[in-house]
Each structure stands twice: as structure tokens, then as C-alpha cells.
Amino acid sequence: MAAISVDPSSRLNNNLDQVSSSTKNNNHGGVVIEEVEGLIRVYKNGHVERPPAIPNVHCAVPSPLGVTARDISIDKCTNLWARIYVPNSSSSAKLPFLVYFHGGGFCIGSAAWSCYHDFLANLSSKAGCVIMSINYRLAPETRLPGAYEDGISSLIWVKQQALNGSSEHKWWINKCNLSSMFVAGDSAGGNIAYNVTTRLVGSNYKPLCVKGTILIQPFFGGEARTGSEKQYGTQQQLPNSALTLSASDTYWRLSLPLGANREHPWCNPLAGYELRVDQRMVVCISEMDILKDRNLEFCNALAAAGKRVEKVVYKGVGHAFQVLHNSHFSQMRTQEMMSHLNAFINQ
């Protein structure tokens, strides 16, 4: 791998070396009240454990991709940071700017996870865009709307850096066409991307201007079960599924405001609420995903409301295949997704 770029904030490096301080105490001994096996365990006294299911990696990128990656600090008080991906190019032409939110049910995941690092480095190279991957605060320590607020705070921070002519960040900001910005994410990150985009409607974030929204298997829910939730809801029904119905329910209990159910608008955007979307949107849907029907219903509702939405269904693959599945078939579908995203960003 290429040499690692050292971030000026040691706090970021500590994050990469330690998945979670809570994972160091494997003999906590308290009463477990919520758990997604192998991913998160929440105790009655508030203690949270997140086993290192996926390795965190530093920001080195294999040289053939022609991408430079570095970590930047956005807000040291909340430990909000991001990983920036910039295609290496001698051209003076400005590049599209994509803000990305990782998945993980709002409760797990990191911009430093190896699967997201690899996916976004490849997307930056393929689509020729600068990517800012946000490491937002997680639930249950920070319930929604904390992740949405981190997304908005990140955009305000970029706006300030651009307007102030920051010398520290000109290495990447000067490469961006900030008037050609895309907000994107997968799973819970897709939910965040949607809710961040709706909060931008009618607001002035110049020189930032959202040109489009990319939702990859967006994590939405509801009290009534859909056909795909019943069909693909258990490991027995879909052994390779990255999201079971039980895990989905647990993530919502941990992330929604206390007392809220799955008809809350942050979970179910179709529960009688206005769809506030102005920009064009693409929704990437997996055929063998419990979220398939909700994603299709979401697209149909947008289209019926006169919104500009494109849907793409990837056959034969499940939730998060593009970051978690390494089979040849999944890799083929991932390349299809890369091509679709490239076309959407650069059209």
C-alpha cells in the first residue's frame, strides 16, 4: 500500500487504533438489554460494546487507483471528522464534490472501516470526484437527529472553509466544484443523506449547491411489515443477508428518540409526511434485501409527487453487497453500481 498520510489531529489516529474504548472490557458483567450479535451490545447501565467486526484502516490508497486520502478534523468537541478522497490529476478543471455517510443502522460503522475505505477510494477514482466521508456520532450514545446534525454541521464547516480561503484545506477544497455537490450514503447513511438533503431545502449554503442525492439501499422502516421484510427477514431465509428484520428493529429502538415508534418520520418518510426533495435522486435497490419493498415504495411516492427520481434494482444480491460481499457475482454488481453512480454524477 502507499504511504499513510498522517493526520494533524492525534485524536483521529487514536480513533483508528481503538475501535471503541468499550470493547476493551470484555467482562463487563452487566445486564444486556439490546444486542445485535457480533456487532453491538448495550447494557442496562448504559455501557455499550462494539466488537471489531470489520477492521479500521488508515488512509492509504493503493497507488494504481490514483487517489489521495487524508483524515480531517471538523469539530474536536464532538470528535466529528471525515476522510477525504481526491483523484490525482494535473488538470485545473474542478471536480464534482460528493459527501458520503456510511451505513451501520446508525449504531455501528466508521469512515475508517476497510470496506468503506475501499469502496469510496474506487468510486473517487471511477467517477473522478472528491469525496468527503463523514464519521458521524453513533446511537445509542447520540440518538437521532444527532447524525443529521453532524451532516449539516459538516456542510456548514465546508462552506466556512471555502469562504475563508483556508490554507490548511485548499489541497482538496480548491479541487472541488462546490456548485456541483452530491449527498450520498448507504443503508443508515442513505437515510442520513435523505434527511440532510431535506434540511437543505430553502436554505442558503452558497457556494455549496446540491445537484443530486444518491441513496444506496436507504434504511427506512415502518410498523407494518412489507413483503420483502417477511421474505428475507431471517438468516434462515437469506443466509448471506447483511440485515435481518430482528437487527433492523434493534437499530431503530436504539437510534430513534426515546418513546418513538417506526412510524416516526425519520424512520418512515411516507407516513403522511411531505417529501421535501428538490434535486434529482437515484435510489439503488438490492433485489434480495428486506428493504427492497420500502425502497420501491419510496421511489414510487417520489415519482407520484412529481420528483425527479431514478431507481436501479440490482438482481440477485442482498443488503450492502457492494461493501460486504466479495463473491465474483457481487463484484460484478458492484461494478455495475459504480458505472451507474459515475453516470449520475457526471451527467
TrEMBL record:
<dbReference type="InterPro" id="IPR033140">
    <property type="entry name" value="Lipase_GDXG_put_SER_AS"/>
</dbReference>
<feature type="domain" description="Alpha/beta hydrolase fold-3">
    <location>
        <begin position="98"/>
        <end position="322"/>
    </location>
</feature>
<dbReference type="InterPro" id="IPR029058">
    <property type="entry name" value="AB_hydrolase_fold"/>
</dbReference>
<dbReference type="Pfam" id="PF07859">
    <property type="entry name" value="Abhydrolase_3"/>
</dbReference>
<feature type="active site">
    <location>
        <position position="187"/>
    </location>
</feature>
<comment type="similarity">
    <text>Belongs to the 'GDXG' lipolytic enzyme family.</text>
</comment>
<protein>
    <recommendedName>
        <fullName>Alpha/beta hydrolase fold-3 domain-containing protein</fullName>
    </recommendedName>
</protein>
<dbReference type="GO" id="GO:0016787">
    <property type="term" value="F:hydrolase activity"/>
</dbReference>
<dbReference type="InterPro" id="IPR013094">
    <property type="entry name" value="AB_hydrolase_3"/>
</dbReference>
<dbReference type="InterPro" id="IPR050466">
    <property type="entry name" value="Carboxylest/Gibb_receptor"/>
</dbReference>
